[in-house]
């Protein structure tokens, strides 16, 4: 009795895999129908921009000094 159980389980797994591979090209061709969470992406973008502006406000003068020092060394 065990070989028939294994055989039927293998057949079900084979059918499931064949259905998956049959649907895969269609899924790849048309992409996902979900558009995603647009307000979430807007919030992430705005938070990133605020973070960069804050870092530049704090480290801007030091970075400007390093840049000017590097340019002076190259131009000599």
Please, could you describe this protein's structure?
This protein has helices at residues 2-30, 38-75. The protein starts with a helix and ends with a helix. It is elongated. The chain is mainly α and 76 residues long.
Provide keyphrases for this structure.
76 residues; mainly alpha; 2 helices
Q: Beta-sheet strand percentage?
A: under 5%
Structure class = mainly alpha
Q: Shape from CA axes?
A: elongated
The DSSP helix count reads 2
Mean pLDDT: 76
Largest sheet: none
Helix percentage range = over 70%
Number of strands: 0
- String of helices and strands: HH
What radius of gyration results from the CA coordinates? 29 Å
Low-confidence stretches: none
Gap between N and C termini: 88 Å
Q: So what's the oligomer here?
A: single chain
